Amino acid sequence: MTIQDDRGATALARAHGLFNIAGGLWPLLHPPSFEKVFGAKTDRWLERTVAGLLVGIGWTQIRAASAPGGADHARRLGIATAATLLAADLVYVPAGRIRPTYLLDAAAEAMWLRVWRARAVRPEPASSRAGSVFAAAAALAAGCATGGVLAARMLRRRAAPDESELTRARYIRHPAAR
């Protein structure tokens, strides 16, 4: 796919880049407020690594936006980043590894995927729309099935009486909140 409107794609790349930079800078500049919203982290190195990667990705999107062919590069990078973060949010919130507030991030990442997709796709001929409806229905069914499997696993884990606190993999609440 190619980007339809270069000016709109450039603006979109810059906006997504700024969003990623802001999301990366928050835990780097003020960890207490970040952890108040998204939960205390046990692996500070991982929190800082992901934050640094988001800043780098955002900066790359902004810089690529104005280069020849850069909008396509920024789009690919933006889609890969948003899809990865969305997948992590949708897998680890139901598993209890991260707080439900990460679903706010999931909504934002889904929005970025939708906007990039809308920006890149040319209007379809009427003959291929039926295939798109089928693909959307199949994706919805797959999502529901995945959600059902994750929910069943979570319920099974909660029902097992012999599991220790360490194997339950819950997010850690800030000691002051206990």
List the helices and strands and how they pair.
Elements: H1 6-29, H2 31-38, H3 44-65, H4 70-92, H5 102-120, H6 126-159
Helix pairs in contact: 1-2, 1-3, 1-4, 1-5, 3-4, 4-5
Transmembrane segments: 133-152
Keywords: Membrane, Transmembrane, Transmembrane helix
CA distance, first residue to last residue: 51 Å
Main β-sheet: number of strands, strand sense, barrel status? none
- Helix count? 6
Arithmetic mean pLDDT: 80
- The figure for the number of domains is 1
Quick one: overall form? flat
List low-pLDDT spans: 163-168
Number of strands: 0
How much β-strand is present in the residues? Answer: under 5%
Nearest-angstrom radius of gyration? 19 Å
N-to-C order of helices and strands: HHHHHH
Structural class: mainly alpha
Key descriptive features of the protein:
178 residues; 73% helix; transmembrane helix; membrane
Overview in brief:
The chain is mainly alpha-helical and 178 residues long.
Structural notes for this entry:
With 178 residues, the chain is mostly helical. It has helices at 6-29, 31-38, 44-65, 70-92, 102-120, 126-159. Helix 3 runs antiparallel to helix 4 (70-92). The protein starts with 5 loop residues before the first helix and ends in a 19-residue tail after the last helix. The chain crosses the membrane at residues 133-152. Keywords: Membrane, Transmembrane, Transmembrane helix.
